[in-house]
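Here is one chain, start to finish.
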Amino acid sequence: MELTPIQGLGAMQAMQAMDTSSVMAINTDSASFIDIFRGMVDNVIETNEQVDRDAIDIMLGNIDDLAAVQANITKANTAVELLTTVKNEVLSAYSTIINMQV
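Its structure:
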């Protein structure tokens, strides 16, 4: 079996720096828990919308940088996991408070 080189495959390029301009900073000194949680939900929605746009662009053949797509998928997955973890911890704390003997 003879291996042939893939046509059109170029040299690897360095990854571009991640764009942090869209990340919203929250002043945690004056923010309430609901503000922080709402920001986390908005982040999940935004990252999932980006993954959806990437999927459409891949199907249309408009994306050449698959590393950026993979990075967006990883960001969306991490955002969902973080939101789920925080939600579970809040529910656990609420359960503990409710079950306290007064």
